[in-house]
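Model it.
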Amino acid sequence: MIEFESVSKTYPDGTVAVEEFSLVVPSHRSVVLVGSSGSGKSTLLQMVNRMVEPTGGRVAIDGEDVAGRDAVGLRRSIGYVLQHGGLLPHRTVLDNIATVPVLNGTRRRRARTEAAGLLERVGLDPSLGRRYPSQLSGGQQQRVGVARALASDPNILLMDEPFGAVDPIVRRELQDELARLQADLGKTIIFVTHDVDEALRLGDEVVVLRRHGVIAQRGTPAEILASPADDFVRDFVGADREERRLTVRKVDGRDVAVDGTGRPVGVLHP
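Modeled.
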């Protein structure tokens, strides 16, 4: 469990990133922080692994204040996936994935063998392990980034706009892959995005942020779509957009869901 207890962040120049933010992220659940630029979502994420230190309040993991943890050890115990993968260009894919286990004392041969297994887990051919990051597509690099984050079998995954730099088709594939992995592994995930559709697809709980980390609404995707808290949330999630307004039509004896423009979006199954 991750707890944010009235955390704030003000930088030395007076810039306020986060004001009095409180949230509990339950173990084995996926919570998505979604908001526009300036909402403090990445700052909040980086408070968990002490990449950013709060100027007020505290962040705790299973009741222990992270401020009392060794920063290096803390970061090695938490999986972290960045927007552009953050892979080391001079190391092969296998060695990128094996980095943290080796630093934690695992023998290199064993770490590389386990890294090959992780490539399969994230949907990549193990033969790609011999390549360097520059020899991979953007989507492949992001999958390697996820594999590297999983390599030390952490309880917590922090994901900072991890799929924002790839094209829409690959992004959808990566979202599906993450959902499959989470169903199998049950990690505690904080996922940051500015894409509300991505948030609604991936979150057990979605937290919609205003500027400075002020919570506009939190709830399940269904709760937020069904009952936006106010006009800000309604506009942000597009609750009144035509593609959100679904009705059912009979077509050749099947129930077909169509949006507000009459475009079919799916078939209902009993």
